[in-house]
Amino acid sequence: MDYRDAFRVALDQVRSEGRYRVFADLKRHRGEFPRATWTKADGTTQEVVVWCSNDYLGQGQNPVVLDAMTQALAEAGAGSGGTRNISGTTRYHVELEAELADLHGKEAALLFTSGYVSNEATLSTLYKILPGLIVFSDALNHNSMISGIRAGAKAQRKVFRHNDLAHLEELLAEAPADAPKLIAFESVYSMDGDIADIAGTVALAKKYGALTYIDEVHAVGMYGPRGAGVAERDGVMDQIDIVEGTLGKAIGVMGGYIAADAVIIDAIRSYADGFIFTTSLPPALAAGAAASIRWLKEHDEVRQAHQARAAALKARLVQAGLPVMESSVSHIVPVLVGDATHCKLISDILLADHGIYVQPINYPTVPKGGERLRFTPSPAHTDAMIDDLARAMEKLWAHCNIKRMGGIAA
């Protein structure tokens, strides 16, 4: 049997659907975000502007963060030395967890190697600690959350329609009153840009005796007076049982975490395979993340500037007649295309002809027919950059034969 043939067939299927992904080889310029150098397949280079980075605030270029990482590297070396349970707990990890607990107003926090791992490990572990647990999951939850929930193979899982609290309550009311329950949802949904009704969800959790688990990955650093997320902005952070977040987006570094009551954190630490058996973050990453969080707690003006940039981009694209998705009430600016081939074509032309880098978003990240370009403006994106993008998009929408307001390939 030629096993390689099966892999070729799988790749051919992806290519035939127009969703084969080609990674752009980029080198960011220190201190010049969002500018970068793109190395093409033939080895030549071109200067580009990055429009799809999740380093939303440019913290990966903040001198305060870079200095902290450089100092930690000089003091402690490169690696952590192992898992946290054997030899991989350093002072840098302890200090970062303290910063995260303080950020969210919780008793404790626990670091993981990524936001994906923190979701998957925590949610799967809750089934071990709470026998018979029923998890109520929003239909648009991230793959990492779905993966963690599915890991409880014998447990019950209930999926409620996206942001539909009436449907959630129906499912909660049908569940046994004495069964342990948990509502898992996100604050900012990164593909549509909409935001959950956190207060309403918390009210239902209290009514039916459920725990709350919120993914604030796309909101940490971005919302609230100190950057703790939408729950802080909405004044309900103290009513959330478990907050999950990332260090790899607005914080500008790498890693994931949860924050909660100390007893919850200690139990997850003691049972989660994704924590126990994984080498911990290098000290330099932990030091950089801690410095970034401390800085963001004191600089709300960068969040205000960021929101202003997002609003300016939305307004400019709408003015050009482009189908910015109305679902977005956040900093995410998604423009619907509705066809995988056209979406990639627009992305390729923007990069090659206009020096604008934005990756096409297609299945399985979004449903087929929901292909889009997802723009993430930062405080460093200038009015000139916004105008260049809008003009290029306006030209390409006609060139690629896309219906302007419908977003569906003609």
Total DSSP helices: 14
The helix/strand class is: alpha/beta
Helix/strand order, N-terminal first: HEEEHHEHEHEHEHEHEEHHHHEHEEEH
Poorly predicted runs of 5 or more residues: 403-410
Helix content: 40-55%
Kindly report the average pLDDT value. Answer: 94
Largest sheet: 7 strands, mixed
Oligomer: single chain
- Total strands: the figure is 14
Q: What integer value in Å does the Rg equal?
A: 22 Å
> How are strands sequenced across the largest beta sheet?
4-10-9-8-7-5-6
Spatial separation of the terminal alpha carbons:
43 Å
- As a percent range, the share of strand residues is 15-25%
- The geometry reads as globular
Give a quick set of tags describing it.
7-stranded mixed β-sheet; disordered C terminus; 14 helices; 410 residues; globular; 4-stranded mixed β-sheet; alpha/beta
Give a brief outline of the structure:
By secondary structure, this protein is an alpha/beta fold. The protein contains 14 helices and 14 strands. The protein has helices at 3-16, 63-76, 91-104, 115-129, 143-150, 165-174, 198-208, 230-233, 262-271, 273-276, 283-297, 300-319, 340-354, 383-399; strands at residues 25-28, 35-39, 45-50, 108-112, 134-138, 156-160, 181-186, 210-215, 242-246, 256-260, 333-336, 356-357, 360-361, 372-375.
